[in-house]
Amino acid sequence: MINFSSIHCTAQSGEYIFDPNGNIYPCWEVIGKQQQSLGCYIQNPIQWSDTLKQWHGRNIHKIEPCNSCKYAFLCNGGCAGHALRSSGKLYSNYCDDFTHTFEMAVNRVYQDYISCEN
What we know:
Elements: E1 17-18, E2 23-25, E3 39-40, E4 47-48, H1 51-57, H2 72-75, H3 80-87, H4 98-117
Antiparallel strand pairs: 1-2, 2-3, 3-4
């Protein structure tokens, strides 16, 4: 079953990684990058940063190339951590050659289907 979504992973919707220094991060790709810390869990109550809204707000509707891409609901804009690392921007896409991989897979499945029919 294919799940269509406007976000790539749970880092954009509520996954949290807690480091031993009290920082909260959205994913393993940005651990230790203080500017990507979502907050601090040592304080009571937790002190959330504005970065939380940025990560939770990232979706294919807000990423320029994705909002007109026919594969957007399949690749979901790609990994936010990888996009950040490659472009320096959280709201950029990270296609990771998705279109080529998808087209190859569809063609392979079609060829298998045709060979089963014969």
